[in-house]
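To fix ideas, we quote verbatim a fold written out as tokens:
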Amino acid sequence: MYVGIHTASLPFVFAEARRRIIMHAALYSNFARSPRHIEALSTALTKPGFRKLHAITLPFDPKRGWMEEFMHVLRPDYSLAQMEHEFNSSRDFLVRLAARHDGLVELYETRAMPCMPVIIVDDKILFGHYAHSPVPAPQGYWFSVTAPVEDMLDWLRHGRIPEDATPTQKASLRFVADCDYAMRNAKRLFL
């Protein structure tokens, strides 16, 4: 358990990635302002054998039914103009990352309300929670579990959870499945 995502040493976790990173969050503007995060992601993306970084994000669409409330959940004290800036910063960061690492970054734009922020690095799953609170998700509790993510992605592709899957694997699968669902049902951005 981590109190605030900053205590999870995320730049170190990113830099240590060997195969895959999946980021499922509404905003990446904090990453965009962090040279440590940018460098760590670039380190992972330039490793031999690294396969893919998948980033799932939201478009700025304040007219969407749930979006105005959700923007308040993301940044409780921000105005609509400030939120638009955060979304633009987030999108610019992802687009630049994809441009610098051609073919290794896949961007997805979902219209579905995210359930929770999830970051998967190889077999490590980090997850937080969104809440109606004056304290935003990056400063909340974050948790980490280890699970056979590649196997779980195969289970999802084949539509079958093995009968011998443990309760812990099934609980971990929920996070992997949420990311997989978002990627399958989102608009893929081709840059």
